[in-house]
């Protein structure tokens, strides 16, 4: 419950910040001792009930991604065109999604360290792997204000995979091989090259 409350409070603050402010300024480890302590506590609890903590985390993640915020904090300037307002709103929603992923991956990195001590169902392991690999996909033609945040979140999910691979290497290797095979079957192009680099960067830890 305190994780939900604290996370939603942090997301609300982030939504009120300028789009240009990197998420790392608000969310990185060491920025908020209370939040760091909470993550540490969840990691300790995971020693005894990793599966249930993972399920709870995924429930929170899915719930957050299903919410449509009213964005009360967002006030478009009176002299901007409506199309520009729409784009700003899209960037703001994108920022919110990335903040959710940022928080989620930070917690995963810590709780998954308990994986060698506590067996977890393959279904949950695959759910983590599939979600992480989605963030390793190259986004062609994107030049929005969230580019830096996207790279940061992809790096955090790469860290998640690094922790997971210590105890579930065969599952990570299988997913990587499948993704790489799909890319190799495509006709060579700058997009395929960039996609391959993004995929490899996802398993750099």
From TrEMBL:
<dbReference type="GO" id="GO:0005938">
    <property type="term" value="C:cell cortex"/>
</dbReference>
<dbReference type="GO" id="GO:0031175">
    <property type="term" value="P:neuron projection development"/>
</dbReference>
<protein>
    <submittedName>
        <fullName>Furry homolog a</fullName>
    </submittedName>
</protein>
<dbReference type="GO" id="GO:0030427">
    <property type="term" value="C:site of polarized growth"/>
</dbReference>
<dbReference type="InterPro" id="IPR025614">
    <property type="entry name" value="Cell_morpho_N"/>
</dbReference>
<dbReference type="Pfam" id="PF14222">
    <property type="entry name" value="MOR2-PAG1_N"/>
</dbReference>
<dbReference type="GO" id="GO:0000902">
    <property type="term" value="P:cell morphogenesis"/>
</dbReference>
<feature type="domain" description="Cell morphogenesis protein N-terminal">
    <location>
        <begin position="94"/>
        <end position="205"/>
    </location>
</feature>
<dbReference type="InterPro" id="IPR039867">
    <property type="entry name" value="Furry/Tao3/Mor2"/>
</dbReference>
């Amino acid at each position: 419950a305190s994780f939900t409350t604290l996370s939603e409070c942090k997301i609300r603050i982030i939504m009120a910040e300028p789009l240009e402010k990197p998420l790392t300024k608000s969310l990185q480890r060491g920025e908020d001792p209370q939040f760091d302590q909470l993550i540490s506590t969840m990691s300790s609890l995971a020693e005894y009930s990793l599966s249930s903590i993972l399920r709870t985390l995924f429930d929170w993640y899915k719930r957050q991604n299903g919410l449509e915020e009213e964005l009360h904090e967002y006030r478009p300037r009176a002299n901007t065109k409506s199309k520009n307002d729409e784009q700003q709103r899209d960037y703001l929603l994108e920022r919110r999604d990335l903040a959710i992923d940022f928080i989620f991956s930070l917690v995963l990195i810590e709780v998954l360290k308990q994986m060698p001590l506590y067996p977890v169902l393959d279904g949950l392991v695959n759910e983590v792997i599939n979600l992480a690999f989605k963030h390793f996909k190259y986004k062609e033609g994107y030049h929005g204000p969230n580019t830096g945040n996207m790279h940061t979140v992809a790096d955090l999910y790469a860290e998640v995979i690094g922790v997971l691979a210590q105890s579930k290497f065969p599952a990570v290797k299988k997913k990587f091989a499948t993704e790489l095979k799909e890319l190799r079957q495509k006709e060579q192009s700058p997009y395929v090259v960039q996609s391959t680099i993004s995929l490899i960067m996802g398993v750099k830890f």
